[in-house]
Amino acid sequence: MIEGQAITRTFASRRGMLGHRGVRALRGVDFTIPDRGAVSFIGESGCGKTTLGRILCGLESFDGGDLIIGDQPMAGLKPRQRAPYHRRIQMIHQDPYSALNPTRTIGQILAAPLALRARQLGADRGWLERRRSELLGLVGLDPDYVLPRYPHMLSGGMRQRVVIARALTVDPEVLVADEAVSMIDVSLRLGILQLLRDLRDAVGVSLLFITHDIATARYVGQGGQLYVIYRGSVAEQGDTDTVIQHPAHPYTQCLLSAIPVMRGIELPGPERVVPTGPLDERSEPRGCLFEPRCPFAEEDCAASPPALTQLGGTKQSHACLHPARRSVVAVPAPVGEA
Amino acid sequence: MAGDTGEATLAGPAGPLEHGPDASAAVRVRDLTVSFPTPDGPLPAVAGVSLDLARGQITGLVGESGSGKSTLALTLLGAVPAPGQVASGSVVIDDVGDVLALRRPELRQVRGAKIGYVFQASQNSLNPLKPVGKQLLDVGRSHGVRDVRKLLHSARLLIDEMGLDAERVLASYQHELSGGMRQRVGIVLALVLNAHVLILDEPTTALDTLTQASVLEIVRKVHAERHLTTLVISHDMGVVGDLADRMAVMYAGRIVEEGPTAEVLASPKHPYTRGLLTAMPRITGDVAEARPLPGRVPDLASVPRQGCVFRPRCPLATDICATAEPADTVLGGRRFACHVTAGEAA
Amino acid sequence: MTTTAALTPEQLQRAMRRSRQQTASRWRLFVNTPGRIVSCAILVVFTLMAIGGQYLYPANLPIDPDSIYAPPSLAHPLGTDFEGTDTLALVVTGARYVLLAALIAALIAVFIGTAAGLAAGYYPRLGGSAIMQVTDFVLAIPGFPVLLVLSTIWHFSSVLQMGVALGVFGWGGIARAVRAQTLSLRERGFVEAARGLGLPGGHIIRAEVLPNVAPFIGMNLMLQLTGFIYIEVGLFFLGAVPYSTNNWGVMLNNAVFQANAVTSPRALAYLLSPLICILLITLALVTLANAVDEFFNPRLRRV
Questions:
Q1: Do C208 and A101 touch (CB under 8 A)?
Q2: pLDDT tens by residue, B281-301
Q3: What is the pTM of this model?
């Protein structure tokens, strides 16, 4: 199990010193990734969700709070000591092409981490090759076809599967998929999403799915939690389907309202909302971060930032002083209504 | 195959579009074929495409990578990407004539003044070394615009309409603008000379959900206010499904289905359209019913040379699909090309 | 579940054939255009000259006092020099020193420069800046003038000495460029992934970074070769280095200062011969630099 407690991260801006005019990417985020669980981080670009994913993989450090990987807090450890823990969390990047060394064949790409593992287990070359083919089969690729090829000879979907296979070579506990399907053709996305979902059962791995496309989160996040992140803090969290159907925070409602509604098969949600203005990254409101753009803002919203509170009687939490569940997401059109 | 349902008719290349939308469409593409040289000989990226852009309507074109949609879009401008060549066909635009028959100087005048083209925001289609205002002046100068002040004024109005600060935008370089802002600037540059045909190539790809929604809203607004004829090209069926009045689905260089958006989405006739709808991650619909499309997205070399191009991935494929390319079936205001579903009732 | 199952047998066969052809044809990259064929031929000829030229002629070339600065003829295709020695013989035997020294210099420069660049680029925080300061120092040294000064005390009597001197002063550019490439590669997805998978730094530099920098190094090697040839020939031309063996630079020196070849047409062939050789080699190396890039980089190949 992975737990994040009040994780904070500020990037020094090029002009000023740290703290003064720094970019506050994360402002105290709490989250839990249960074993074999599925967690989705939803938000717009710049909200900090990618930074959070990178912190989990050890590619980024954090300034405040703590990250607990399997009961071991990371804050007190030196980078060298943290490495084996972070190895249990593997990243699946957005761009399947730059994630694979273009000068190496797939066989070589997978052999490298497996060779390390083989040495740890005292296994021989035969084990390596068997395991390699096994992993390729697990992600739905034919080893004979794929092993001798270079990355540019494979389609985007196949490359992404190779990336997933490589991540599985170290037997990770968590796969972090950061926009893992956004650069793949539409007809192939579902295949990758279902693969990620099935790996939860097949291999016992948990999934952290980071995306701005909420629809894709539905397919991997079943039975899991959804976190909506706005400007570095959690605006709303809860069961995936509950948050999508009954969002309580105005920002979540704006996000869901913005999803295109397909004529003929969908009708717009009855209570759709839009933000009152664009995002101003340089503003630092004293109160609720979303208040400057919130269509439902009231006077007390600008006074102090709302804490994450639970919606009475449910597992859903939100950071809003005046939450109200609204139906904003598109609904299927009744058959016959064009 | 034909004849069971009173409306369905099998039609040859000249037929379907006379039954279809407004015969006085603003843009008429007929039998367009664009070929690229390959080690195996010239192969078509766009094969025998006929399409009407109905005047005053938004038409959407859906296709994945390799479908030929970008090649088609650029050909409408007369800008076939090298080393491609137009093998046959015509692109007739209302008061311009056949774009493909124009010579270079005439083409330059037509682009911008008659047809506005908006590139993808993430493509570097804005000059990184010049502020936006200067690029605007470039556009004006290259079209022999005398009254520069009036040009700037209309540009400012357009930018204001999009909810941006005109002075700031005109003075900015492209790297100082966000993706959404760059997309909006692209639309301004495309419309500033009052073109009446607007082509948007992947207008919302690489944009966040909220930004995407606001760009779509702007396209809708601008289209209505200026009575444009708009073509939106996207791999995202959701965008086309929301924005377009009519939509066409493209696969392997051919248009496999076309018609009013609501009808095409509510009762898709072509197996690819159906497959795409089932395979698309959507916010509505039963997650358990989603099925991925088998096989790979075809490229130039792997498209079947004989029979239906979709056959390798089609769940309905029969013997005839391997030997004969299906002709268009016309059903009221729609058409689609499939041997098997041609016999289905509307 | 297998995504490839939907490929038809013909598609699979075609794909496999194409992939086999691609791997076999890597070496054909060097001969796939007429320009490249000619360039390869030029390099082969000069390499043979450098290796075997000295065996074709006696150690001391015969002088012929009767035909000093003779024009080209059947017996002397390129004419003769100020002692009556055959110019062609001079060119062939003179190739060895120049080419060998340049090769040694280029290898040394590439070796030191790559090692420094990789280390500085991959470990920017530990020692990276120290390495770069040394590199900047070397870069700042004006190679040619320093060598000129050095030549007063060091006589570069052997090919090896010349090569080492050139190489040791010439690695700065490669180091800087390799460092820049390494720094940017460091942030690429596959290098981050390798770190995250626990692969050791040495492996990453050797197996992940180096193959991606290789095309760049290969190209630089070719271009450095031409640079070193120029410097060498320049040093000899200026008479900065006393010569014990014949080489092209010496020929140029003699041609200009002894034969006044620049002002009189007598010894034109004598002057032009080494110049044309250098020109041909430069052209060949530059033409093949592209092929080297494509050789290492699977993506650039136009198949």
A1: yes
A2: 888 888 888 888 888 888 888
A3: 0.83
